[in-house]
Design brief:
This protein is an alpha+beta fold. It is about 20% helix and about 30% strand. The chain is built from 4 helices and 13 strands. The strands form 3 sheets. A 5-stranded mixed beta sheet has the order 10-9-8-11-12. The radius of gyration is 17 Å and the shape is globular.
Length: about 210
């Protein structure tokens, strides 16, 4: 049976973006024809977590409502470089625990992290959504692989906008950020576009 995963930000004993995480779990059960769901708030409460600091609450579950939990100290990653990798068949519309295809793409790349290109469009990294800076505004690709919780929250609060970002217009943007449940929108933590080692026109990107 397939297993799914939620990675939830816990900071100073506070749980973040719980409503959006719960909605995604509920939609997963519903999509696969299962009644009910699991209660993330109850799971966190039962852990009796009483430490301050930043943690990732990792919840692995299946559609029979079996769960495994880990509370892992977390540090925001600083990534050295990125590489565009083309994969037109990859699907990650649900947050499956199985990451073999993602790891395979990463292993074959020459950079620390990958940016997956699907049908000529920018999608996500192996573990996050992306936002790109043009002028003073931040944009996220409308061709995401997974509609992440941080992405949904930033769009809802109008801190970012959604747009088409493809190989042809990528160089119109100057900087980018990685965002996910643990990595917030932070204008002090951005990457210049040339951190992508194979920008269009510089080198062919990998095709899987």
């Amino acid at each position: 049976m397939s297993q799914f995963i939620e990675s939830i930000k816990i900071e100073d004993q506070k749980i973040f973006l719980l409503e959006i995480h719960q909605k995604r779990v509920d939609q997963t059960f519903s999509h696969f024809g299962k009644e009910g769901s699991i209660d993330l708030a109850k799971i966190y409460k039962h852990l009796e977590h009483d430490e301050d600091g930043l943690f990732k609450l990792r919840i692995v579950y299946d559609l029979d409502k079996r769960i495994r939990t880990q509370m892992i100290p977390y540090a925001i990653p600083e990534i050295e470089d990125f590489q565009l990798v083309e994969n037109n068949s990859f699907d990650y519309s649900f947050k499956f625990e199985d990451r073999k295809e993602l790891e395979k793409m990463k292993t074959k790349s020459k950079a620390e992290e990958i940016i997956i290109v699907k049908n000529n469009h920018i999608t996500d990294t192996s573990f996050s959504n992306l936002i790109f800076l043009k002028g003073k505004d931040w944009f996220t690709p409308n061709t995401y692989l997974l509609n992440g919780v941080q992405r949904q929250s930033l769009l809802k609060h109008k801190e970012i906008k959604e747009t088409e970002i493809n190989i042809q217009n990528l160089k119109e943007f100057s900087h980018f950020q990685i965002i996910n449940a643990l990595n917030d929108f932070d204008e002090n933590f951005i990457y210049p576009l040339d951190k992508i080692i194979n920008l269009p026109g510089n080198e062919e990107y990998l095709d899987f």
